[in-house]
Every structure is written in C-alpha cells, then in structure tokens.
C-alpha cells in the first residue's frame, strides 16, 4: 500500500537535493546499516556512538550523537515508510512502536533515484510550523546535512567502492 | 512489511477489550467509511459533522466533533498502519502526510479478530507519558469509548444487519 507523503511546503520544509556519483544500492546500504551510518551521519568532529535500525514501519531509528567535548545526545524515533532503494521516511514525533514522543521536531524523507551519474539524492526535513523550520535552519541544517552527505559519499568510495 | 507496534504498557495505555456479536467485515466497514463512522464515533449527544478517511499510511484521518451546544472541534491526524479486517493504527502526533502535529496526544490501535460470536474488538489508546494517559482517563476514556462501541454495534445491526 503506497503511503501518502506531505507535498513540499517551502515555508515548513528544508531540503537538500543533489546528484552524487555513487550508486543507489550503496546509498541505501549506508543509510540502513548501523555500522555504516555511524561513520557518516554526523558532521565531524561530532560523531555517532550508538545506532539502532529496525527497518519497518514503527521500527526503531535511534542514534546517540557525541559532541567534540564528549557530551552525548540520544535521539529516538521510528520509521514510517520503507521502500527499498527508493524512499525512507522517519520521525521523532513517534517513538518505536508508534508511541507519541515527548518532543516532536521533524519528519525526515529520503528519496533516491538512479541516474546516469549515480544517484539523485533528496533529503527533506518537514516540520509542523514555521518557527520549528527556522530553528532547524538556524541550528545549521544546510551546512550540516550537506557535510554529512559529503561524508556519506567519501565513506562509500573508501569502504565500499 | 509488518509494522512494529508498541508492546502494551499499563502505565501509559488505555484499553477497551470486548467481544461483540457482529462480524469483523462490518466492524471494518463502519470504521473505514466516513458516512458510517459519523453515526457512531462520538457518544451522543455529541456528534461528528465531518470526516475524512484516506485509508493508507500517511493518509488523512480527520474528524470534526460537535458538542450538544453546537461548538465544533477539529481533530486531524493520519493512519500509520492498515491491515484490512485486522488492524488500524492512527495518530494525532502526525498530520496527513506524516508532518509533525502541533499537539500530539495519542496513537490509536484497533485490533479485530473473528470469533464464533462475531468479533473480538480491542481498541487501545497509547500515550507518551503517564500524565497524558491520566488526562485521557479523566476526560472519560472508558465510558466514552465503551458508549461509542455500543453505538457501533447498534448502527451495524440497524443499518447493515
């Protein structure tokens, strides 16, 4: 059953849309395997020290991020839609098993498409209101997600190439 | 792909579990068709004056409830898991299309099973913390959901029987 995904709203959403020269299959692999995701998901010198991926609707998507000073931040959420090699939707508005979360912030929508060069990679963060979108932008969405994508491509080329 | 549903937690969840003498197919029909749902979903003298059902993950589940004094309350949410005749999961923590909602309150899990008598009907409201569970209980969960179920059975027997 195909899911309904919110249409893009520039007032509420932040988008990273880029063509990258690595194949869709490997992008999917490094997004859905904890040992790979931990290597690229956070812009260095931040890092990911723990990751749980239960790849099904309602399944856990948890990460623990560590600051350069060693402080740790746990993020808990779940997947909403999983279309292998094409789309991954997850949110922090619901905990694993669809239980409402204490501090909803965003839903993430990753869309992949094969192209001659490799992959068209579209990552979108959708929010419930303009203030939350702005807060996310001020936290450094554009630089952060672009840097993580650079790390993803580098990781694929050096470890899976 | 089977979804992962949160295990029952008595501290966070409210449950209505009953055997009813109407068949699973008709229970599913009156839960998933706006013109039927509007007839039983709110304990009278409250009523439902509008309903949108887009029966797929991320699809809208919106209702407008009207108090006996004529005041209207709009509820917006979406479906998370749809297993025809067996399970329906929906939440108000996400708007249609999985966009985070302003005021998350609960996720609803309806589970149906055919039995000799008709249907075993289990409706669960799961919450993010004990305060929200208590608030829902104080709002009259047990009486309200039980009365709505009486109305559901009556509606099936008189209109679809």
What does this structure look like?
The structure is a homodimer of 161-residue chains. With 161 residues, chain A is α+β, with helices and mostly antiparallel strands. Helix content of chain A is 28%, strand content 32%. Chain A is built from 4 helices and 8 strands; from the N terminus they run E-H-H-E-E-E-E-E-E-E-H-H. In chain A, the strands form 2 sheets. Chain A has a 5-stranded antiparallel sheet, with helices on one face. In chain A, a hairpin with a 3-residue loop joins strand 5 (78-83) and strand 6. In chain A, helix 2 crosses helix 4. Chain A starts with 12 loop residues before the first strand and ends with a helix. The A-B interface holds A 1-7, 12, 54, 56-60, 78, 80-82, 89, 91, 93-102, 104-107, 109, 126-129, 132 and B 1-7, 12, 54, 56-60, 78, 80-82, 89, 91, 93-102, 104-107, 109, 126-129, 132.
In brief, what are we looking at here?
In chain A, 28% of the residues lie in helices and 32% in strands.
What features would you highlight for this structure?
globular, three-stranded antiparallel β-sheet, 32% strand, alpha+beta, homodimer
Which helices and strands occur, and which strands form pairs?
Two copies of one chain form a homodimer.
Chain A: E1 13-20, H1 24-32, H2 34-40, E2 47-53, E3 61-66, E4 72-75, E5 78-83, E6 87-91, E7 107-114, E8 119-126, H3 130-138, H4 141-160
Antiparallel strand pairs in A: 1-8, 2-3, 3-4, 5-6, 6-7, 7-8
Structural class of chain A: alpha+beta
> Order of strands side by side in the largest beta sheet of chain A?
1-8-7-6-5
Q: Most extensive interface, residues per chain?
A: A-B, 40 and 40 residues
Which stretches of chain A are low in confidence, meaning pLDDT under 50 for 5 or more residues running?
A: none
Shape, principal axes of CA atoms of chain A: globular
| CA distance, first residue to last residue of chain A | 34 Å
Number of helices of chain A: 4
What is the subunit organization of this protein?
homodimer
The helix content of chain A is 25-40%
Q: Quick check: average pLDDT of chain A?
A: 97
Q: Which value, in Å, is the CA radius of gyration of chain A? A: 15 Å
Largest sheet of chain A: 5 strands, antiparallel
The secondary-structure element order of chain A is EHHEEEEEEEHH
Total beta-strand segments of chain A:
8
Strand content of chain A: 25-35%
